[in-house]
């Protein structure tokens, strides 16, 4: 009997998940209309500012143009639909969370968005021009002709911007995990040397192979980690104070 109840509960959860996924997909498809309208405008903007304005964007396949057009439209649609998608995700996940975890998650959502946008801006306006300038100098020093495809340029850009945007989520993630009791400042302090090693690897992967560029990426990542440790101490202290008051 218990196994049957568990099976029914699992099926009801899967049904609800499928329903929320279909709702999210419907909103994304509706948003594609706006994405298809705005895609050429966004593409022209990216082409008008450095480093995109410093090259001729070529296509090497009849499909490259339509592929980029649809890809940019999809990115716009996902961005517009993100609040609704997060709302559907929250509606599904919150049933398995305690009240404290629900409150913490809702409180940190705005900060998560701000950190993500800050990471995108840092990646696009700081790291991307630096990386492109470095690779362009190497190409010219070898007397090679710079002929870039639009698909290759966007791939290069996304490989730099997206990892940095995700890395900028670190303070919010640490605060949330500290709030619900999974992380503590003591654990973060013990992990510091390993964390720095990971940050060195990340910085070397998303920046040009040159010391100054590594430092320009590595230093902000270290600052983010140390801010995360500091915020963890604050959240941990408040959590202990609340626990003492309730006791």
Care to describe what's here?
This protein is an all-alpha fold and 247 residues long. It is 83% helix and 2% strand. It has 8 helices and 2 strands. A two-stranded parallel sheet has the order 1-2. The protein is flat and about 70 Å long. The mean pLDDT is 79.
Work out the strand percent: under 5%
Largest sheet: 2 strands, parallel
Output mean pLDDT.
79
Number of helices in the DSSP assignment: 8
Catalogue the unreliable spans.
Answer: none
Class derived from helix and strand content: mainly alpha
Spatial sequence of strands, sheet with the most strands? 1-2
In sequence order, what are the helices and strands, one letter per element? HEHHEHHHHH
Gyration radius (Cα, Å) is 22 Å
Q: Termini, distance in Å?
A: 39 Å
Q: Which range best describes the helical content: under 10%, 10-25%, 25-40%, 40-55%, 55-70% or over 70%?
A: over 70%
Shape verdict: flat
- The counted number of beta strands is 2
Key descriptive features of the protein:
247 residues; mainly alpha; two-stranded parallel sheet; 8 helices; flat
How is the topology of this model organized?
Layout: H1 2-48, E1 57-58, H2 64-93, H3 99-141, E2 148-149, H4 150-167, H5 170-179, H6 185-190, H7 192-206, H8 211-246
Concise structural overview:
This protein is mainly alpha-helical and 247 residues long. It has helices at 2-48, 64-93, 99-141, 150-167, 170-179, 185-190, 192-206, 211-246, and strands at residues 57-58, 148-149. The chain is built from 8 helices and 2 strands; from the N terminus they run H-E-H-H-E-H-H-H-H-H.
